[in-house]
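Appendix C: a fully annotated inverse folding record. The material below is reproduced so that readers can follow the format used throughout the book. The structure is listed first as tokens, followed by the designed sequence.
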């Protein structure tokens, strides 16, 4: 017999997760664990607070005026590149805005292969597989895994026009 997940906990962590000092945790608790809709006033207020967090402001302070992060716009998959920063911002629950849209545009300019797929190789023409150790895909072709990851990220952080 499978019990509800909340019934097997030693204590009730939801009040702790809903404390306001970490709006990202609060946002995901409200939306993922409590199934509150995005239009719920508490969700809207909490999500707005995410943009005011110092680490979010620091990430945007490092954004280049052309929309990318890091030293080289043509390499969105580097540790400091657009994909990494956009992933963090999505993980934090930031509401997509013009800044995230500019980051998405940068990813599209330099991360997408001419065929429509995405690659971590840093070039539009030469694409590497996901792994050299585990050849899951053919080399020098766009990666379906990287493309799926890129599209999920773009869907999550791109602002709808």
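Designed amino acids, in order:
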């Amino acid at each position: 017999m499978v019990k509800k997940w909340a019934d097997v906990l030693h204590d009730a962590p939801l009040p702790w997760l809903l404390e306001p000092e970490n709006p990202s945790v609060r946002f995901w608790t409200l939306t993922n664990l409590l199934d509150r809709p995005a239009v719920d006033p508490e969700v809207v207020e909490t999500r707005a607070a995410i943009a005011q967090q110092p680490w979010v402001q620091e990430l945007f302070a490092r954004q280049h005026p052309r929309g990318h992060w890091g030293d080289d716009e043509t390499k969105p998959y580097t540790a400091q590149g657009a994909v990494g920063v956009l992933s963090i911002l999505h993980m934090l629950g930031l509401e997509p805005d013009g800044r995230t849209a500019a980051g998405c545009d940068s990813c599209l300019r330099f991360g997408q292969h001419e065929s429509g797929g995405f690659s971590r190789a840093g070039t539009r023409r030469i694409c590497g597989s996901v792994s050299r150790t585990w050849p899951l895909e053919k080399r020098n072709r766009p990666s379906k895994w990287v493309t799926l990851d890129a599209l999920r990220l773009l869907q999550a952080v791109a602002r709808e026009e």
